[in-house]
């Protein structure tokens, strides 16, 4: 039989309102009464209903996560799965729930955010991509609704955000390739208006500059999707340039497509590096070298930053940088 707050009140010989005040840590309740009620709670193994308590406090304890993709696309890009896992782990530890909305484009993303914020469905919002001139960020700032961004925003001092140092991560990869003897290194990126994409591209350019290698626009490609076929097509285009010895990409799915095209052409002397270090990377032939961005940690810290803000904790902290690690494998 489910234990209720009335059972606890009867066991402690107090009113149900007193139990409620103890659960909410009301300072008007004496320490002696708190001890008696908490003893009854422990004895009966009573578990407060977090949703019911939230309604009393006029809070939902629900976070809205806006995914920049259709639902069926998520299974093809492990980054979102891992980020969602991290968010869920921290939210659950704090008795928060998560609801997800899927957005095909910026318009549907804006519609989802408007619905969440105007209908009091959620206490805060998590966005999984940072773009230049982001209308969703602009709207949330204007209505002063709590939110956190996974990705570096245009105005980093004005919003809560979590990210990697994408510039540094790509710089180190390209620098390692150059130190290994590579001089002609192709670049394949996607969705240029994402701040993550811009930072990784800048890291690529800076590594060339520091090592006195001329930037060659003919071996740089920007596409519109993080998908395997993008890597295949891009690789085919890059191979029109003679002397190419390495290709860096901004996502594992693109890198896997590059490997597939190289394998199709029986080319084995071009190094390939991906980003995100998805589970798929280690099972490629050759196994794919990749930058581990700790996607689950990004999600975990995003949820933590938002919940801390909602509960008035660590209000002076506005961002968190998650470390990256280069995982060297056979393709390097």
From TrEMBL:
Annotated CDD domains: HTH_LacI, PBP1_MalR-like
GO molecular function: DNA binding
Domain of life: Bacteria
SUPFAM superfamilies reported in the protein's UniProt record: lambda repressor-like DNA-binding domains, Periplasmic binding protein-like I
Gene3D superfamilies linked to this entry: 3.40.50.2300, lambda repressor-like DNA-binding domains (1.10.260.40)
Record flagged with keyword Transcription regulation: yes
Record-linked InterPro entries: HTH_LacI (IPR000843), LacI/GalR-like_sensor (IPR046335), Lambda_DNA-bd_dom_sf (IPR010982), Peripla_BP_I (IPR028082)
Keyword list, A-Z: DNA-binding, Transcription, Transcription regulation
Keyword Transport: no
HTH lacI-type domain boundaries: 3-57
Protein name: DNA-binding LacI/PurR family transcriptional regulator
Species: Paraclostridium ghonii
């Amino acid at each position: 039989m489910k234990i209720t707050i009335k059972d606890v009140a009867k066991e402690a010989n107090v009113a149900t309102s007193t139990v409620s005040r103890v659960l909410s840590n009301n300072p008007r309740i004496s320490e002696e009464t708190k001890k008696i009620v908490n003893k009854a709670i422990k004895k009966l193994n009573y578990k407060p209903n977090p949703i019911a308590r939230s309604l009393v406090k006029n809070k939902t304890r629900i976070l809205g996560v806006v995914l920049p993709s259709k639902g069926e696309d998520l299974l093809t890009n492990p980054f979102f799965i891992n980020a969602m896992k991290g968010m869920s782990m921290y939210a659950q530890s704090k008795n928060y729930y998560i609801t997800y909305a899927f957005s095909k484009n910026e318009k549907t993303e804006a519609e989802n955010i408007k619905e969440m914020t105007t209908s009091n469905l959620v206490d805060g919002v998590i966005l999984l991509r940072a773009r230049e001139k982001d209308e969703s960020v602009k709207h949330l700032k204007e209505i002063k609704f709590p939110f956190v961004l996974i990705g570096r925003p245009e105005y980093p001092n004005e919003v809560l955000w979590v990210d990697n140092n994408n510039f540094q991560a790509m710089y180190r990869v390209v620098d390692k390739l150059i130190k290994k003897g590579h001089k002609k290194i192709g670049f394949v990126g996607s969705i240029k208006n994402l701040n993550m994409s811009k930072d990784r591209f800048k890291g690529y350019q800076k590594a060339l500059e520091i090592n006195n290698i001329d930037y060659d626009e003919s071996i740089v490609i920007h596409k519109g999707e993080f998908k395997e076929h993008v890597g295949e097509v891009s690789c085919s285009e890059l191979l029109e340039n003679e002397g190419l010895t390495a290709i860096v990409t901004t996502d594992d799915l693109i890198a896997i497509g590059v490997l597939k095209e190289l394998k199709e052409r029986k080319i084995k002397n071009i190094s390939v590096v991906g980003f995100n270090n998805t589970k798929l990377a280690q099972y490629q032939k050759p196994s794919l070298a990749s930058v581990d961005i700790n996607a689950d940690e990004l999600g975990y810290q995003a949820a933590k930053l938002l919940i801390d803000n909602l509960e008035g904790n660590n209000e002076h902290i506005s961002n968190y940088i998650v470390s990256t690690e280069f995982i060297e494998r056979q393709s390097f």
